[in-house]
Design brief:
With 220 residues, the chain is an all-alpha fold. It is 81% helix and 0% strand. The protein has helices at 2-31, 38-45, 51-56, 59-86, 95-112, 114-128, 136-156, 162-190, 197-219.
Protein backbone atom coordinates (compact mmCIF):
# COMPACT_ATOMS: atom_id res chain seq x y z
CA UNK A 1 0.00 0.00 0.00
CA UNK A 2 2.81 2.43 0.89
CA UNK A 3 4.51 1.74 -2.47
CA UNK A 4 1.25 2.48 -4.30
CA UNK A 5 0.84 5.70 -2.35
CA UNK A 6 4.40 6.70 -3.22
CA UNK A 7 3.75 6.09 -6.92
CA UNK A 8 0.57 8.17 -6.75
CA UNK A 9 2.44 11.00 -5.06
CA UNK A 10 5.17 10.89 -7.71
CA UNK A 11 2.60 10.95 -10.50
CA UNK A 12 0.90 13.91 -8.87
CA UNK A 13 4.23 15.75 -8.59
CA UNK A 14 5.08 14.97 -12.23
CA UNK A 15 1.66 16.23 -13.35
CA UNK A 16 2.09 19.47 -11.41
CA UNK A 17 5.57 20.06 -12.80
CA UNK A 18 4.33 19.41 -16.33
CA UNK A 19 1.40 21.81 -15.87
CA UNK A 20 3.82 24.48 -14.70
CA UNK A 21 6.12 23.88 -17.68
CA UNK A 22 3.22 24.00 -20.13
CA UNK A 23 1.76 27.18 -18.64
CA UNK A 24 5.15 28.88 -18.42
CA UNK A 25 5.96 28.03 -22.03
CA UNK A 26 2.86 29.78 -23.34
CA UNK A 27 3.27 32.82 -21.09
CA UNK A 28 7.01 33.24 -21.69
CA UNK A 29 6.43 32.96 -25.46
CA UNK A 30 3.62 35.54 -25.43
CA UNK A 31 4.88 37.98 -22.79
CA UNK A 32 8.59 37.35 -22.42
CA UNK A 33 10.54 36.46 -19.29
CA UNK A 34 10.28 39.89 -17.66
CA UNK A 35 6.60 40.23 -18.58
CA UNK A 36 5.63 36.96 -16.91
CA UNK A 37 5.36 36.68 -13.14
CA UNK A 38 5.50 33.55 -11.01
CA UNK A 39 1.92 34.25 -9.98
CA UNK A 40 0.83 34.41 -13.64
CA UNK A 41 2.34 30.98 -14.23
CA UNK A 42 0.96 29.25 -11.16
CA UNK A 43 -2.46 30.80 -11.70
CA UNK A 44 -2.53 29.42 -15.24
CA UNK A 45 -1.20 26.05 -14.06
CA UNK A 46 -3.73 25.81 -11.22
CA UNK A 47 -1.25 25.47 -8.36
CA UNK A 48 0.07 27.62 -5.52
CA UNK A 49 2.76 30.24 -6.06
CA UNK A 50 5.33 28.32 -3.99
CA UNK A 51 5.24 25.47 -6.54
CA UNK A 52 7.78 27.14 -8.83
CA UNK A 53 10.38 27.25 -6.09
CA UNK A 54 9.51 23.73 -4.98
CA UNK A 55 9.79 22.09 -8.41
CA UNK A 56 12.20 24.42 -10.23
CA UNK A 57 14.04 26.47 -7.55
CA UNK A 58 12.79 29.71 -9.09
CA UNK A 59 11.61 31.44 -12.24
CA UNK A 60 15.10 31.61 -13.80
CA UNK A 61 15.55 27.84 -13.75
CA UNK A 62 11.94 27.30 -14.84
CA UNK A 63 12.61 29.41 -17.94
CA UNK A 64 15.75 27.38 -18.62
CA UNK A 65 13.85 24.10 -18.29
CA UNK A 66 11.03 25.33 -20.56
CA UNK A 67 13.54 26.16 -23.30
CA UNK A 68 15.62 23.03 -22.75
CA UNK A 69 12.56 20.78 -23.02
CA UNK A 70 11.63 22.19 -26.43
CA UNK A 71 15.18 22.45 -27.77
CA UNK A 72 15.82 18.81 -26.87
CA UNK A 73 12.56 17.70 -28.49
CA UNK A 74 13.47 19.50 -31.74
CA UNK A 75 17.02 18.12 -31.61
CA UNK A 76 15.86 14.53 -31.14
CA UNK A 77 13.18 14.80 -33.83
CA UNK A 78 15.64 16.15 -36.40
CA UNK A 79 18.46 13.76 -35.54
CA UNK A 80 16.10 10.78 -35.61
CA UNK A 81 14.88 11.84 -39.06
CA UNK A 82 18.49 11.90 -40.33
CA UNK A 83 19.35 8.54 -38.78
CA UNK A 84 16.16 6.93 -40.11
CA UNK A 85 16.94 8.15 -43.62
CA UNK A 86 20.56 6.98 -43.46
CA UNK A 87 19.45 3.53 -42.23
CA UNK A 88 18.03 2.77 -45.70
CA UNK A 89 19.85 0.74 -48.30
CA UNK A 90 22.77 2.70 -49.83
CA UNK A 91 21.16 2.70 -53.26
CA UNK A 92 18.11 4.50 -51.83
CA UNK A 93 20.14 7.34 -50.30
CA UNK A 94 21.08 10.59 -52.03
CA UNK A 95 22.11 14.12 -51.05
CA UNK A 96 18.82 15.47 -52.38
CA UNK A 97 16.81 12.90 -50.43
CA UNK A 98 18.78 13.54 -47.24
CA UNK A 99 18.32 17.31 -47.40
CA UNK A 100 14.66 17.04 -48.34
CA UNK A 101 14.00 14.67 -45.46
CA UNK A 102 15.86 16.95 -43.02
CA UNK A 103 14.10 20.07 -44.29
CA UNK A 104 10.68 18.55 -43.77
CA UNK A 105 11.69 17.43 -40.28
CA UNK A 106 13.04 20.92 -39.58
CA UNK A 107 9.88 22.74 -40.62
CA UNK A 108 7.08 20.35 -39.65
CA UNK A 109 7.16 20.80 -35.84
CA UNK A 110 7.51 24.57 -36.18
CA UNK A 111 4.60 24.90 -38.61
CA UNK A 112 2.22 22.18 -37.49
CA UNK A 113 2.54 22.21 -33.69
CA UNK A 114 1.67 24.93 -31.17
CA UNK A 115 4.81 24.07 -29.21
CA UNK A 116 6.89 24.75 -32.31
CA UNK A 117 5.42 28.23 -32.67
CA UNK A 118 6.17 28.83 -29.00
CA UNK A 119 9.79 27.85 -29.64
CA UNK A 120 10.06 30.40 -32.45
CA UNK A 121 8.68 33.15 -30.22
CA UNK A 122 10.93 32.15 -27.34
CA UNK A 123 14.04 32.16 -29.53
CA UNK A 124 13.21 35.57 -31.01
CA UNK A 125 12.76 36.96 -27.51
CA UNK A 126 15.95 35.25 -26.40
CA UNK A 127 17.93 36.94 -29.18
CA UNK A 128 16.60 40.34 -28.11
CA UNK A 129 16.65 39.85 -24.35
CA UNK A 130 18.98 36.95 -23.45
CA UNK A 131 18.16 34.95 -20.32
CA UNK A 132 19.67 31.54 -21.07
CA UNK A 133 23.28 30.48 -20.41
CA UNK A 134 25.45 31.78 -23.25
CA UNK A 135 26.02 28.48 -25.12
CA UNK A 136 22.85 26.60 -24.24
CA UNK A 137 21.09 26.81 -27.63
CA UNK A 138 24.31 25.92 -29.42
CA UNK A 139 25.11 22.97 -27.15
CA UNK A 140 21.58 21.60 -26.79
CA UNK A 141 20.40 21.97 -30.40
CA UNK A 142 22.73 23.40 -33.02
CA UNK A 143 25.94 21.41 -32.37
CA UNK A 144 24.46 17.89 -32.04
CA UNK A 145 22.06 18.39 -34.97
CA UNK A 146 24.65 19.89 -37.32
CA UNK A 147 27.23 17.23 -36.39
CA UNK A 148 24.90 14.38 -37.35
CA UNK A 149 23.80 16.07 -40.59
CA UNK A 150 27.39 16.97 -41.45
CA UNK A 151 28.50 13.34 -41.12
CA UNK A 152 25.55 12.17 -43.23
CA UNK A 153 26.28 14.70 -45.98
CA UNK A 154 29.93 13.68 -46.20
CA UNK A 155 28.86 10.02 -46.51
CA UNK A 156 26.35 10.58 -49.31
CA UNK A 157 28.44 13.13 -51.17
CA UNK A 158 32.01 11.87 -51.79
CA UNK A 159 34.43 14.74 -52.22
CA UNK A 160 32.56 17.09 -49.90
CA UNK A 161 34.77 18.25 -47.06
CA UNK A 162 33.52 18.54 -43.49
CA UNK A 163 33.92 22.32 -43.45
CA UNK A 164 32.09 22.64 -46.78
CA UNK A 165 29.29 20.46 -45.42
CA UNK A 166 29.01 22.60 -42.30
CA UNK A 167 28.73 25.85 -44.22
CA UNK A 168 26.17 24.23 -46.52
CA UNK A 169 24.11 23.27 -43.44
CA UNK A 170 24.22 26.84 -42.14
CA UNK A 171 23.02 28.07 -45.54
CA UNK A 172 20.21 25.48 -45.67
CA UNK A 173 19.00 26.25 -42.16
CA UNK A 174 19.11 29.98 -42.89
CA UNK A 175 16.81 29.47 -45.86
CA UNK A 176 14.43 27.32 -43.81
CA UNK A 177 14.28 29.89 -41.02
CA UNK A 178 13.56 32.61 -43.57
CA UNK A 179 10.66 30.49 -44.82
CA UNK A 180 9.32 30.50 -41.27
CA UNK A 181 9.55 34.29 -41.13
CA UNK A 182 7.72 34.56 -44.46
CA UNK A 183 4.98 32.37 -43.01
CA UNK A 184 4.62 34.67 -40.02
CA UNK A 185 4.52 37.77 -42.25
CA UNK A 186 1.80 36.29 -44.47
CA UNK A 187 -0.14 35.16 -41.42
CA UNK A 188 0.01 38.62 -39.85
CA UNK A 189 -0.89 40.53 -43.02
CA UNK A 190 -3.45 38.24 -44.65
CA UNK A 191 -4.86 36.28 -41.75
CA UNK A 192 -4.00 33.06 -43.58
CA UNK A 193 -1.33 30.56 -42.55
CA UNK A 194 1.36 29.72 -45.09
CA UNK A 195 1.04 26.10 -44.05
CA UNK A 196 -0.74 24.59 -47.03
CA UNK A 197 1.15 21.32 -47.71
CA UNK A 198 1.57 22.18 -51.39
CA UNK A 199 3.07 25.60 -50.58
CA UNK A 200 5.44 24.23 -47.96
CA UNK A 201 6.48 21.41 -50.26
CA UNK A 202 7.18 23.91 -53.03
CA UNK A 203 9.33 26.00 -50.70
CA UNK A 204 11.27 22.94 -49.55
CA UNK A 205 11.68 21.71 -53.14
CA UNK A 206 13.24 25.03 -54.13
CA UNK A 207 15.49 25.29 -51.07
CA UNK A 208 16.75 21.72 -51.43
CA UNK A 209 17.36 22.07 -55.19
CA UNK A 210 19.22 25.34 -54.58
CA UNK A 211 21.36 23.80 -51.83
CA UNK A 212 22.14 20.62 -53.80
CA UNK A 213 23.25 22.72 -56.79
CA UNK A 214 25.48 24.74 -54.50
CA UNK A 215 27.05 21.64 -52.96
CA UNK A 216 27.64 20.08 -56.35
CA UNK A 217 29.32 23.30 -57.51
CA UNK A 218 31.63 23.15 -54.50
CA UNK A 219 32.95 19.71 -55.40
CA UNK A 220 32.90 20.06 -59.19
Amino acid sequence: MSQLKSQENKKGADDTATRILDAAEVLFAENGFAGTSARDITSSAGCNVASINYYFTGKDNLYKQVCKRRLNALRDFRINSINDYMAQSPEDISLEGLLYNFSRAFLAPLIEEASGRNVMKLMVREMLFPQLPANMVFEELILPMSTVLQDAMVKVCPGLGERQALWSIFSLVGQLLHTMHIQDMLSSNSGEKFSNPFEVSSAVDHIVAFTVAGVEALIA
